[in-house]
Design goal:
By secondary structure, the chain is mainly α. It has two domains: 93 residues, Orthogonal Bundle (Arc Repressor Mutant, subunit A); 141 residues, Up-down Bundle (Four Helix Bundle (Hemerythrin (Met), subunit A)), CATH 1.20.120. Helix content is 73%, strand content 4%. It contains ten helices and three strands. Strands 1-3-2 form a three-stranded antiparallel β-sheet. α4 crosses α7 and α4 runs antiparallel to α9. The relative contact order is 0.15.
Length: 243
Amino acid sequence: MSRGSDRKPLSGAIASDLESEIIDGTLEAGTRLDETVLARRFAVSRTPVREALQLLTARALVERVPYRGVIVSEISRAQIEELFEAMGELEALCGGAAAVRMSIRERAEMLELHRRMESLAARGERAAYDEANAAFHRRLFDGAHNRYLTEAAEALRVKLAPFRRAQLADAARMRSSSREHAEIVAAICERDPDAAARALRRHLVSAAAQILTRWAQGGEAGAETDTGAAPQDPQRGADSQGG
């Protein structure tokens, strides 16, 4: 495989590692992500690092600040709550439409995917479950058969994806997620749009509760540092506030 074809998976892997560190607070708000430092850390050229930072920018986890470079964004409890609330309503709309509009084949495929996810959850296969979970929700969006709903849901999914992955790190949450999917699939297969919408709202509330619990345990630090090997600014560290 050529370096060019390797680059996208490599940049995605780097973005995933940095994403996890941002969500769990290892990389605090205000941390500057330097391409050269990161390239040394991951033993790669700056190109996949640059692409990884672009992915994180699209997910609103980092921002480009003039004269400072790429900085880890401040992520507040209110922002997480608003993201999950908006996603819950969008998914409820998609689920209600899907319950009415999905073909028999689409319903069967969703049911088959759900059964595979039950097995993954039972075995604790987090990475495979996370990948299947993304596919499950994409099927839900597509099943609404409304391109504007699908586009809106996909755009918000990109920003919410890091938090959804983080909450699935807990094995118990992964199993409860699978049980919630069972309710969603049952409602869709029974062509019950109201039940599908309610199940999806509950599903997003449960996911939000998990990530907010982790967030409260980890705190909301806000110190400014450089990446990895770079030292923290002691004055900014002293001035920063947790929460």
